[in-house]
Amino acid sequence: MWRTFQHLCLVSILLAMAACQRETVLKYKDIQSLSVVELSGEGQQKIRISGLAFMSAMSVRRIATRSNGSSVTVLVFIGPAREGQSGSFSYDLIVPPTVRDVRFSEDQIVIWRRSANL
Hints:
Elements: H1 2-20, E1 24-25, E2 31-39, E3 45-53, E4 58-68, E5 71-80, E6 88-95, E7 101-104, E8 109-113
Parallel strand pairs: 5-7
Antiparallel strand pairs: 1-5, 2-3, 3-6, 4-5, 7-8
């Protein structure tokens, strides 16, 4: 009986630790100092997206993109802060010729549009 209780406690602790490690997508409203800068490239349109998650207990884990027709959406995944990680991010994105705008987060906020002369 005692051994079963110990195993259940251990499993509960491990499940709780795993839940604390889950990631969430950073929302546009939770960014401080968002910057989108066009970079000069060799025949390619390239932009740098940077900012700071305005949540001191969270750090950036990874950045991903999703394509949807003529748009690309940038997703910044955050999770509980860990040693050596921060809430700041910088991401260089090569924008394919077929993409007209770049959006941020699941909010789909447009942060960059292709100009007519490109």
